[in-house]
Amino acid sequence: MKEIKKLKVMTVVGTRPEIIRLSATIKLLDKYTNQVFVHTGQNYDYELNEIFFEDLGLRKPDHFMNVDTTSLGSAIGDIFKKTEEIIALEQPDALLVLGDTNSCLSAYMAKRKHIPIFHMEAGNRSFDFNVPEEINRRIIDHIADFNLVYTEHARRHLLSEGLQHRRIYLTGSPMWEVLQQNMEKINNSDVLGRLNKQLEEEKRHSGTQSLNTVLHCEPKKYFMVSFHREENVDNEENLKQILTTLNKLAEQYKLPIIVSTHPRTRKRIEALDSSLITSPLSEVEGHHSSLISFLKPFSFTDYIHLQQNALCTISDSGTISEESAMLHFPAISLRQSMERPEAQDAGSIVLTGFDLDIVLNAIATVVDESSSPITHHSSPKEYQIENTSWRVLKLILGNTKLSNKWWGINKV
User: Is pLDDT at 282 greater than 60 in this prediction?
Assistant: First the structure.
């Protein structure tokens, strides 16, 4: 019997959310296609890279680009250059990217080489060009051969921009599938115990306060925080406002605040006057600034466990809207614009900006709602699709060879 030749699909990742979201799809592509798995090497911190591959049961990528991140131009230029080199070496039949980070700009070189592009998470729009990803996602959507959207909101955005119906397919969010596949590990995580033990050790060995301070956490008696977006941490005023908010939160609730600290965030905080972290609470009885602890990023399953068990999660991540809706934990989005309006439609997230009073009022509101006996949890229907990875696989298998015929372009 003649051996069936498998499609060669080149999948490019570069950030933690991409690794997480694509994890189920990557495993299927490994089974049913000849997958070339590529990492741009944009993040060098171990916790943002290798630990997520291990936690999600993913194999090591076939290629690491080791992109030069000394400047925006060097990073994007390196992605173009090294994508071209890998394409020349591997000769893939299709390219798969997810999201809107710089790693997805590998799609540009694939387009120039007439390789069909499948773009997951297409059609998201914040309509805010202060957000670098807004620029990337618009470029990628318009050069992609097939845009795989999470929601009808996203489909409408693309149609309104003139994209053809046959270039748009609704797959739903991959997060539901990823969460379900990892739910046993999430529920069984002992991260709180390990965290408390670690911080108790720090307390014994250090008599000073720093970016890693001391706390003790119990379920529903701590806040979970993460913020890393360029428009937040690279803007000094926004960063100061976020830090002030954390201090006021500690003062008001007198509960531990765990900050999962991206390397970019840590670098920006350490560049500021350290008094910005401690002085707002220095006059408060008990010195509650010690309630705030800036820690290295957690593994995926540990982080989800911490979010689920927090009194409230405060984040600027794109995934918080989906995770809070799917797992029904109280959360606010610490941003000034959002590309997931369906989460606001469902009432599963509050978009607050940085105004201190608004943030504190929003936190009080979602905390009260979560403890109410008549709370009605709602989640967008597209967030409940259980077979996203299979949908993506079938679209790639079916449409890749048809793409060039539809466009009238011969692969060169």
Answer: no
| pLDDT score recorded for residue 1 | 63
Element (H, E) at 259: strand 257-260
Topology of domain 187-381, per CATH?
A: Rossmann fold (3.40.50)
Which DSSP letter does residue 70 get?
S
The residue among 400 and 41 whose pLDDT is bigger is 400
3-state helix, strand, coil in the chain (%, to 5): 50, 15, 35
CA–CA separation, 404 and 13 (whole Å): 25
CA–CA distance, 172 with 386 (Å, rounded to integer): 8
- Establish whether domains 8-172+385-407 and 187-381 are of one fold: yes
Overall CATH class of domain 8-172+385-407: alpha beta
Quick one: pLDDT at residue 266?
86
Q: Is the pLDDT of residue 283 over 60?
A: no
User: Could you give the CA distance from residue 182 to residue 184 in angstroms, rounded to a whole number?
Assistant: 6
What lies within 8 Å, CB to CB, of 137 at 6+ separation is 99, 100, 104, 121, 122, 124, 125, 339
Task: Count Cβ atoms below 10 Å from residue 11 Cβ, excluding itself.
Answer: 26
Residue 11 has pLDDT above 90, yes or no: yes
Tokens of 130: 């202060």
Predicted structure pTM score: 0.89
